[in-house]
Amino acid sequence: MQTSGVGDRGVRFRRGARGRDAFWLYMGIALAMLALEIFGSGIPRQIRGYANDFVAPVLSLFEGPIRASQAGLERLAGVGDIYLENQQLREENDRLRQWRVAAQRLILENERLSQILKVPEREIPPVATANIIGVGGGAFERSVLLNAGSGDGVLVNLPVVDELGLVGRTIEVGYLTTRVLLITDLNSRVPVRLERTNAVAIAEGLNEPFMRLRFMPVNSSVQVGDRILTSGHGSLYPPDVPVAQVVSIEDDIILLKPSSSLDTLDFVRVMDYRPLPPEVVETEDPEGQTN
Length: 291
Known about the structure:
Layout: H1 2-38, H2 43-116, E1 126-136, E2 143-146, E3 159-161, E4 166-173, E5 178-182, E6 189-194, E7 200-205, E8 211-214, E9 227-230, E10 242-250, E11 253-258, E12 267-271
Antiparallel strand pairs: 1-2, 1-12, 2-5, 3-4, 3-12, 4-5, 6-7, 6-9, 7-8, 8-11, 9-10, 10-11
């Protein structure tokens, strides 16, 4: 064990001695080169030139792989940038699509509101233009709920229209909401006339998509395609508002298809139509006195 320890120390000593000798050798060479450089000798430059000449082939040999590696890294970095840019473009496209959908919806709403203003109404002012917020359905009800109420001036029994024709009438009015009885409800009766012949009748709801034309005068001429308008009788609905169109005639059963888009209602208009009953209409005599 002692012999082994002495041998290890000897090996370490010899290694340390060689390291010191190499250090002093390099130090001496460096000092000599420095002195030659200071005193203006060209030997250091020549040595550097020889060193460059020696290293140049090695550098040329590794230049191609190094450049290829750099180009690959740049391409990878470019791919990463392209990926991030594509991600940003996709997000921007998603936002643009959302804006496009919103713009199309607003355009449609604007067109529908503009069309609502063109419904024949004999200069009847609107009480409110409202949105449908609920639909009542079932075997015994055809109604919708509006987001306008007495706070907007809505009253009971006011006619409601969309851009195509008559929708119904108000039956329950709250401060913020109003329920509208549709013309297809079983309890709905609308005094109407045929646009082609002026024959008067009643359009009844059936709790179905279609209505029925009843109480036509004897020998009245009714044809498929005839337009049905409000007659103004009964003072509940104004005259000449489109109600329906004749789609089927079988014996004495005349079916009507509503003009308004009841299946896709969105915006509707509550009309301020409140004619005075005949018994309270005051007349004036020729001398200007009220009777």
